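Tutorial, part two.
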Amino acid sequence: MRWDQGRAEIEKLLADKHLQRVPASREHADRVLAQARRHLVSAIRTADADPEGAYALLYDAARKALWSILENQGLRPTTAGGHLAAYHAVRAQLDPPMGQQLRPFDRMRRHRRDAEYPPADAPELTTEDVEDDIPRVKDILGIAEKILDQMSPF
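Running the prediction step on this input gives:
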């Protein structure tokens, strides 16, 4: 069964070289999703001692969950497309109905970037920042876990 929602956006991301085709692999998608789950657990464990590191892990958990969806379809973001290409590709295919759960990813991406390359006026990440986004990352992981069996290779 062919997945049609968001097809035009995926074709554009491919044409713009923000996505590339790779062999579709459920096995690899499951491996990446398992990494995402471990990152989430590590983020929860380290939130108090190292909020910036924990937030990076939390963000990576969300990013890898999105990536697992694409790997299952035989798609992968390129260096030119980066993390945003993964977000745009998955969101195009799943919004609606799952856009609300996916939307926090872009804000988290900016938060993580500011923690990695902090502007002088950027507030420091706190344990509360990590704790606030844990449910959002769990939602994104849940989407990946649910959708892998439903989406066909692109």
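The radius of gyration is 15 Å. In part three we will examine how such features are distributed along the chain.
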